[in-house]
């Protein structure tokens, strides 16, 4: 049985999010560490997971998180 790809998942871990959205690791991790509450972050125990659809909306408004090409 194959693992689901990031496009098919509703929740992504941090490394999957960085890879899927082509994000700058430094900028993304500093965003996650902020004390600001973001609607795309959920906790599973102590693990942070990203709601893919909510983060897609966020990244459209904040393209500066993407890696320079």
What this model shows, in words?
This protein is an alpha+beta fold. It has a single domain (8-65), classed as Alpha-Beta Complex (Molybdopterin biosynthesis moea protein, domain 2). Helix content is 39%, strand content 16%. It is built from three helices and three strands. The chain has helices at 14-21, 25-33, 52-61, and strands spanning 11-12, 41-44, 47-51. Strands 1-3-2 form a three-stranded antiparallel sheet. A hairpin with a 2-residue loop joins β2 (41-44) and β3 (47-51). The N and C termini lie far apart (34 Å). The mean pLDDT is 91.
Radius of gyration: 12 Å
CATH topology value: Molybdopterin biosynthesis moea protein, domain 2
**How far from one another are the termini?**
34 Å
Instruction: Please list the strands of the largest sheet in the order they lie side by side.
Output: 1-3-2
What is the helix content?
Answer: 25-40%
Shape: globular
Strand content: 15-25%
CATH class: Alpha Beta
């Amino acid at each position: 049985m194959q693992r689901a790809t990031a496009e098919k998942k509703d929740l992504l871990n941090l490394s999957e999010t960085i890879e899927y959205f082509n994000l700058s690791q430094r900028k993304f991790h500093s965003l996650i560490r902020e004390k600001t509450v973001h609607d795309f972050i959920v906790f599973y125990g102590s693990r942070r997971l990203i709601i893919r659809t909510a983060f897609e909306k966020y990244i459209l408004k904040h393209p500066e998180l993407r890696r320079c090409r």
